[in-house]
Amino acid sequence: MQTYLDFEKSIAELESRIRDIKSLESGDEINIAEEVRRLEAKLDDLLRSTYAKLSSWEKIKVARHPDRPHLSDYIENLFTDFMELAGDRSYADDQAIIGGIGRFKGQSVLIVGHEKGNDTQSRIKHNFGMARPEGFRKAVRLFRLADQFKIPIITFVDTAGAYPGIGAEERGQAEAIARSTEACLQVKVPLISIIVGEGGSGGAVALAVGNKVLMMEHAVYSVISPEGCASILWRTNEKAEDAANALKITAQDLLKLEVIDEVIPEPIGGAHRDHEKTMKAVGKAIDNALMEFSSIGPEKLRELRNEKFLNMGNISL
């Protein structure tokens, strides 16, 4: 069952009409087929026009769409021989962050990313993609492993933010995020980061300090969620839409600000409408990025990555 967002009312009505016509039993199949083709062309135009003018707040809704591909989908469709590596060797295995070794077009790679889950049971298991300290410490362990064996790293970012619970804070949440960010900066292998849905706060940055930071067309990436920002500035969540527009969180805004390096185009109507096309686009972007850094030496890779993020703090007066 297709899940529609509030701004997709006309799209939902048109798709419902197409389904109704297709279900009709009539001897005049030619006329039915022609009507379906006409309505599908109209639907295509409507999807294009709607998604070409999304506001920041509407893009957040698309980025949070429950049917968007998650890490498990990318692993299944883009990588082979994936072997999950669990635990932080200190406290526990956090299922909000999944990591392991696999092959991308025959090349060994390390895959680490947030997993939100795709139904109630799996979302609870993965804590809605909100990692605890042990999740970030697992990521650090895997980054160092990849560095030791000279394996490129690919990270998938999709989280509303790190888990803010008391237990997480007691176990050093901020320190764990900082250590993960530091590990990203220290590795001497190519590190490709992809924001595929939500990139929220330090929980996202901890996996996103890459040589190449890619971002899906309708993903969002911000220092704080719009709801969190609104609750701080205006003491109410009702101003979340205003906060979203002010934060500059869309891929298009961040490309202009040079926070990210490239926008990966999504299928018409968003990644949730066509997983197959989404996988092809992401796979192509990963392939290009790995090729770009394949001839650069270890020390230079680390130097370029550090320079890239240090330059974001430069302000010309």
Characterize the main sheet. Answer: 8 strands, mixed
Radius of gyration: 21 Å
Secondary-structure element string: HHHHEEEHHEHHEHEEHHHEHH
The CATH first-level class of the largest domain comes to Alpha Beta
Q: How would you describe this protein?
A:
The protein has helices at residues 9-23, 29-52, 56-63, 71-78, 120-125, 133-148, 166-170, 173-186, 201-205, 226-233, 240-247, 251-256, 275-293, 298-311, and strands at residues 80-84, 97-104, 107-114, 153-159, 191-200, 212-216, 220-222, 262-264. The protein is of the alpha/beta class and 317 residues long. It folds into two domains: 6-53; 60-311, 2-enoyl-CoA Hydratase, Chain A, domain 1 (Alpha-Beta Complex). Strands 1, 2, 3, 4, 5, 6, 7 and 8 form an eight-stranded mixed beta sheet that branches. Helix 10 packs across helix 11. The mean pLDDT is 92.
Features:
alpha/beta, 14 helices, 8-stranded mixed sheet, 2 domains, 2-enoyl-CoA Hydratase, Chain A, domain 1, globular
